[in-house]
Amino acid sequence: MVVSRLSGGSAEVLSVLGLQGERAIEVPGAPCAGVPRLIRDGGLNAALGDPVGRARASLPPGERGDELGLQVLLAPGLHEVAHYALRARFGAIPEDQMARRAAETGYELTCFAEPTGSLRCR
After folding, report:
1. Are residues 96 and 63 in the same domain?
2. Which one, of 68, 73, 15, 79, lies nearest residue 40 by Cα?
3. CA distance 114 to 110
4. Model-level pTM?
5. Domain count, the chain
6. Which of 4, 29, 63, 73, by CA, is between 20 and 30 Å from 101?
7. Is residue 9 located within the same domain as residue 63?
C-alpha cells in the first residue's frame, strides 16, 4: 500500500506501507510494481492506524491541505490468476458468458496474497 498526493489524474507516492499485525507501518524503498487502486474507506484507514493522517502531519504546513489517498497496488499477475480461477469454476467459455454466469450465480472471486508473494484465488 502507499499514501499518495492526488492531483488531477496522477498520484505522487509520499510513503510506502507494509502491514505489521493490524497496523500499517512505513517501510523504506520504492513501492512494488502493480496497478494502483484508490481506497476511499475512512474506516480502513483508521483501522490501519491512520497512515494518511501520519503522512499529512509529515508535510510542510503549506502542503497539508493537499488531497492525500491510501492506495493498494494490485499485483500485475492478479488478472491472470483470477482468470484461471474463473475458468476452473465455469470452464473454457467466452469471457462475456463467464461474466454473465458469475453474476447470475452470485459468484464472488476472492484473491489472497501469500507470504511468498504469490497469489491464490478462489
Report:
1. no
2. 68
3. 13
4. 0.63
5. 2
6. 73
7. yes
Cβ within 8 Å of residue 31, ≥6 positions away = 2, 13, 16, 73
Summarised one tens digit per residue, pLDDT across range 40-88 is 888 999 999 999 999 999 999 988 888 999 998 877 777 788 888 888 8
Residue 86, number of CB atoms within 10 A of its CB: 19
Residues of the domain holding 106: 78-121
SS3 state at 66: coil
Amino acid letter, residue 98: M
Question: Where is the domain boundary, 74, 97, 113?
Answer: 74
C-alpha–C-alpha distance, residues 115 and 6, integer Å: 30
- pLDDT value of residue 55: 93
Residues in the chain: 122
Tell me which residue of 119, 23, 26, 111 sits closest to 77, measured CA to CA.
119
Same domain, 17 and 53: yes
- E strand or H helix that includes residue 24: strand 23-26
